[in-house]
Amino acid sequence: MQQMKIIAVIPARYEATRFPGKLMEMLGNKTVISTTYENVVKTKLFDDVFVATDSQIILKEIEKNGGKAVFTKHHETGSDRIAEAIKNIDCDIVVNVQGDEPFLNKKPLKELISVFKSDKKKEISLASLKTKMFDVKEISDPNNVKVITDEQNFALYFSRSVIPYPREISKATEYFKHIGVYAFRKEALLKFTNLEMRPLEISEKIECIRYLEYGMKIKMVETDFVGVGIDVPEDLEKARALLNIKKP
C-alpha cells in the first residue's frame, strides 16, 4: 500500500475580530504563532508544515524564524484559506491546526491521522475532535459548538444550541464540545471550497456543517485534550499563567 503524504497547515489571520494581532502577542520569548508552528513541527507527524496567511507581518515572523509560510488572499473561512495554500502541493491528508492553539500536542493529532490509515474504502472526508463536557454553563454557552454522533462516531450535527435537548433529565445523556482541529482528504477540502453555503451553515455559522449538508462523512475522535485557545486577551493571560510567564 502506498504511504500517504500528510502535511499540516496553520491558517493565520492577523486581524482577528475579537483580538486583533493576537498571533503576534508574546508567550515568553516567542510569539503565539511561532509557538504553535514549532510545537506542530516537534510532533514529527508530518511530511511538511506550513503557515497560510494573508498577513505580511505573520509571513515575515515565520520565515525569519526558519519556518515555512504561504501567502494567500483574504478568505471567510480557514478551510478556504488552507485549500488555496495546498492546491498545488502534493499531499493526501491535510491537518488544519489553528494558529491560536499553542498547546496542541502530539496525541490528538496522531489519533486524527490514524482515522485515515484505517479507512480502507476512503469513505471519510474529514476527521475532527470532540471532548466531553460536564459543566452546565459550558454546555449552554453558544460559543461552545456541540456535536452529536452516531454509534460509529460519525457526526450527525453540530450546533451552538444544547444538543441533545434535555427534555427529560437523564444521567445517560452526554454532551460533547467540538474542538476545531481537522484532518481532511485533500480532494474533500478542494471540493468544499466550490460548494455554496446552505441554510444550516448560514444559521449556525459553523463551517463543518457544509460537509454534512452535502452528504460528506465526518469522523469524530474523542479526546481528553483541553488546550487554551487564544480567542480574547484573558486567554492570553491564562496561557502565560500555564507557562509561568510574566506579562511583558
UniProtKB/TrEMBL annotation:
Keywords carried by this UniProt record: Cytoplasm, Lipopolysaccharide biosynthesis, Nucleotidyltransferase, Transferase
Pfam family, one: CTP_transf_3
Subcellular location per the Swiss-Prot or TrEMBL entry: Cytoplasm
EC number: 2.7.7.38
Transmembrane segments: none
Enzyme class: transferase
Single Gene Ontology BP annotation: lipopolysaccharide biosynthetic process
Lineage top rank: taxon: Bacteria
Keyword presence, DNA-binding: no
Pathway named in the protein's UniProt entry: Nucleotide-sugar biosynthesis; CMP-3-deoxy-D-manno-octulosonate biosynthesis; CMP-3-deoxy-D-manno-octulosonate from 3-deoxy-D-manno-octulosonate and CTP: step 1/1
Catalytic activity: 3-deoxy-alpha-D-manno-oct-2-ulosonate + CTP = CMP-3-deoxy-beta-D-manno-octulosonate + diphosphate
GO cellular component, one term: cytosol
MF terms in GO: 3-deoxy-manno-octulosonate cytidylyltransferase activity
Gene3D superfamilies tied to this protein: Spore Coat Polysaccharide Biosynthesis Protein SpsA, Chain A
Protein task: Activates KDO (a required 8-carbon sugar) for incorporation into bacterial lipopolysaccharide in Gram-negative bacteria.
Annotated family: Belongs to the KdsB family.
HAMAP family assigned to the protein according to its UniProt record, in alphabetical order: KdsB (MF_00057)
Protein name stated in the entry: 3-deoxy-manno-octulosonate cytidylyltransferase
Species annotation: Halpernia humi
